[in-house]
Amino acid sequence: MATDYLWIEGIPFHWTTIRDLRSLRDGFLVRDQDVITLSYPKSGTNWIKEITNLIHTRGDPSWVQSVVSWERSPWIETPEGLELIEKQGDPRSYTSHLPVHLFPTSLFTSKAKVIYIMRNPRDVIVSGYHFHKTLKITKNPSSFEEYFEWFLRGNVPFGSWFDHVGGWLQMRGKENFLFISYEELHQDIRASVEKISRFLGTELNPEEMDSVLQHVTFQAMKDNKMSNFSLVPDIHIDHSNMRFMRKGIAGDWKNQLTVAQTEAFDRVYREKMAGLPPGLFPWD
Ligand code: PPS
Asked: Where does the Sulfotransferase domain start and stop, copy by copy (predicted)?
């Protein structure tokens, strides 16, 4: 059964989110050794998690093949995730879709390593639509048109894509932040993994690198039940309709958005992103 959103500071969330995000923001202590994956939903979060987890094990797949992804790098904004993070030894690995103004403020004075993954928002809409129509933890769109409207208004879990990306991009230039795009991973996964492992301070030898690359392909993650979301409890997702590892491509929006939707999206995009320098995104 789909439920309505939980609204916190004007932003819609799933009901699985911690209700008191202000306590999390003011009370959670980010440590310098932490490795944090951040993103707006459906941007390639789990791809980055898999990569960082495999870099951590130097390409040994036994961890990613035996522990579900949401326990390897738990979500800080859920009660279960937070509990797991608090039990982790250093270096801790965790994930969040929180917008910058709701994230624990201790991050901004720490040396924790943050990887922010971005994706063409047109593809984020399409991926989000297919995901949200199967979710039982939030209200479901009745059509793509409806979800498209919700997205443009920011009335989807974790709020406006434009505010999320624009907010976190204020951190660009800080040496403990790495901004990377889904499209970049697609274009050159080896160079991307090298960039991420350098950022994390882990030099991989060629065999270790090959093993990481082998286990982060779309097919490998789709076949790995610890990473493909098939083990998410039934109360959260309608598994008969759900394929988390759906298409895994860049540019799927061209198969879904009408000309009118593309034009409407472009108008909003130009207006909302006007303050950012050109050349920031591979899809522009
Ligand atoms: S979530 O629910 O917000 O955490 O989802 P997120 O992980 O951010 O994004 C899910 C989309 O990422 C695709 N994905 C991949 N694409 C290519 N290669 C690999 N290895 C990979 N892993 C995940 C996944 O298929 C979702 O995109 P769509 O377009 O729906 O297929």
From this structure: 32-276
Domain hosting residue 139, numbered range: 6-272
What is the Å distance from ligand 1's center to 23 Cα?
30
Q: Let me know if residue 1 belongs to a domain.
A: no
Q: Is 41 in the pocket of ligand 1 (CB under 6 A)?
A: yes
CB-ligand 1 contact for 199 (6 Å cutoff) = no
- 279 domain-assigned: no
Nearest-atom index, ligand 1, CA of 247:
31
Helix (H) / strand (E) element for 93: namely strand 93-96
Per-residue pLDDT tens digits for 128-161: 999 988 877 778 889 999 999 999 999 999 999 9
pLDDT digits (tens, 9 = 90+) for 83-101: 999 999 999 999 999 999 9
Residue 84 lies in a domain: yes
3-state secondary structure (DSSP) of residue 185: helix
Residue 73 inside a domain? The answer is: yes
Kindly state if the Cβ of 91 falls inside 6 Å of ligand 1. Answer: no
> CA 254 to CA 256: how far, in whole Å?
6
CA distance 276 to 278: 7
Residue with tokens 């279960």: 80
The total number of structural domains that make up the chain: 1
Catalytic residues: 97
ipTM: 0.99
pTM of the model: 0.96
The CATH number for 193's domain is: 3.40.50.300
Q: Residue 90 has which token pair? A: 């250093």
